[in-house]
Every structure is written in C-alpha cells, then in structure tokens.
Design brief:
Elements: H1 3-9, H2 11-22, E1 35-39, H3 42-56, E2 62-66, E3 78-83, H4 89-98, E4 104-108, H5 115-118, E5 121-124, H6 137-153, H7 163-173, H8 180-183, E6 187-192, H9 196-211, E7 215-219, E8 235-240, H10 247-253, E9 257-260, H11 266-283
Parallel strand pairs: 1-2, 1-3, 3-4, 4-5, 6-7, 6-8, 8-9
Length: 301
C-alpha cells in the first residue's frame, strides 16, 4: 500500500481531532469580520471551499485568492493563510506584505518552518502532515478545522453537516469499493456548487497530480455551457453535493456516467476521488507518493 493510501485512510480521525482543536482556539475569524483566505494549489482550493461555507453561513464577507494573486490594496479584518509545508514562497511573501494591516492566521503542518514567524497566530495541524508530496489529509483537515470554527461561532448554512457527521461519512468513503465504471473511465469532469466547487477543483487536481489523468472541474450550472461536450461513453461527470435539477438526465442523454453521493458530506466524497487518483496512478505504474514534476513545496529564488 502506498504512503498516500495510508494517509487518505486516516482522515476521519484527523477531522475529529481538528474539530476538538478548534473548540478553544483563539484567532479564528469572528462573525461579522471581512475575511480573506489564501493559499497555493490545493490550499487555494480549500480556501475557496471555506470562503463559500462562511458566507453561506451568514458569518461575514469572505474572499479566497491564490496567494500570488492576492489584492493587497483591499482592506480586510483578518487574513487566513493555508500552507502545509510552511515554506511556500508566495504565502510567506504575502504574509510579510499584509502584516500590520490586518491580523493574520496561518494553518500549517510543520512547526519548524518560516511561517511560524510570518503570521500573528498559528494553527499547527502537525498530526495531519504528510510524507507524500500529494496533499490529501492535511488539506481536508485544515478545512475541517475552519468548518469547526464556523460551528463554534454561529450556525451553519442549511444542509451543511457538522464536522463530526462528516467524519462518520468519511469512515465509509475510505473503505467503500470504487465502481468499475469510474476506475476504467478515460476522462473525469468534477462539478460542484457553492463551497463544493472548491472540492471539485481539488478532485481534478489530485487526479492530474497523482495519475496524470484528463480531468476538468466546473461549477455545476456551468457544465451545460460547453463542458458537457466532452462527456460521453467511458467518461464520468462527478457531482459533489446535491444534484441540480435535470443534470442527471443531461449526463445520461450524452452517454456519460454520473457519479453522485448526495447524502454524503462532500468533503467525505472527496476522499473517494483521492482514492481513485491513487488507483489510476498505480494502474499506470506511477508512484502516487512522488508524482512527476512535483515537490512538497514551491520555494522560489
């Protein structure tokens, strides 16, 4: 079993620990604050998911940006940065630039890195750090930590489960067999709405990183506006969260395979996509722990 597979399977436990950690943590966004969330790659997609969750919960205006594209001229009450390695150049440069302009919180997996001195407050999720280059459990644990913060400070949006309930769904997601129609497909399109669009983006990234697969990701309602043209026999459309009306029929009509686990927490459903990425990588003879052309952290000169 690859190291990535082992790390994927630990996510339910990691999420529960993150929720406990968030209970008394000082420095999480407060209701009513105008917040920006940032990161690179996977961390950016988790930022997107959290931003949409927070706004949908009515806890305040929340924007998400790739760290390299952060609008430093805007005013925020708090900036949240996600960086597993604690060494990502764009994140560290941004934290330096906004320091003193707004309180900053950084989530990291490594307490022995420069980010410890770069932000005002640090949430260390070292139990969720990974040996694998490809991020799986750190990303979802960071999101679980931020979700738990929303639970602590106010109500969640309708239909959004607690982290505890999501962890229960994740227990099934780490063991349930993947259908042959998914593992044998030649192309996968991941779809989401609201906070699950960030998860759809992350699912596509995992498949490209680990398996070099042909994947795309879109907001679900944009799927009909062009992307559906690539769906057909042997190709998958995978929806995170509840299906928009008519989408199932649209996929069926073009001969595609629809994947949906509407009753499951979408973050738990992401685990299935992570597992699929490992299965595809191994079927091609790739090492999912050390994907081609990637390193644990991007450190620029």
């Amino acid at each position: 079993m690859s190291r990535t597979s082992v790390e994927i399977a630990t996510q339910p436990t990691c999420w529960r620990r993150a929720a406990e950690y968030a209970t008394d943590f000082e420095g999480l966004p407060l209701p009513g604050e105008r917040v920006a969330v940032t990161g690179c790659g996977t961390s950016w997609f988790m930022a997107m998911a959290y931003a949409a969750l927070r706004e949908a919960a009515g806890q305040g205006e929340t924007d998400a940006f790739a760290s390299s594209e952060f609008p430093v001229g805007r005013s925020y009450d708090r900036v949240v940065a996600i960086t597993r390695s604690g060494t990502t150049s764009e994140v560290l440069a941004l934290l330096a630039e906004v320091r003193g302009k707004a309180p900053t919180l950084a989530l990291t997996g490594d307490p022995k890195t420069p980010v410890m001195d770069a932000a005002d407050t640090i949430a260390v999720l070292d139990w969720a750090d990974e040996e694998s280059v490809v991020q799986t459990r750190f990303a979802t644990t960071a999101l679980a930590f931020l979700r738990a913060g929303l639970e602590r400070t106010g109500s969640l949006a309708p239909g959004v489960k607690t982290v505890a309930a999501a962890a229960v769904d994740a227990e099934l997601a780490v063991t349930e067999p993947l259908p042959e129609s998914v593992t044998s497909a030649e192309q996968w399109t991941f779809l989401g709405r609201g906070w699950t669009y960030g998860l759809a983006q992350e699912a596509g990234l995992k498949m490209r990183e680990a398996a070099g697969a042909w994947t795309e990701s879109y907001p679900a309602m944009e799927y009909r506006h062009g992307p559906i043209s690539i769906t057909g026999p042997g190709r998958v459309a995978w929806m995170f969260g509840p299906l928009p009306e008519g989408l199932a029929g649209d996929v069926t009509n073009v001969g595609g395979t629809l994947v949906t686990h509407a009753g499951a927490d979408p973050m738990a459903d992401l685990i299935r996509a992570q597992r699929l990425a490992v299965v595809l990588a191994e079927s091609k003879g790739y090492d999912p722990d050390h994907p081609r052309n990637l390193s644990r952290s991007v450190i620029l000169p």
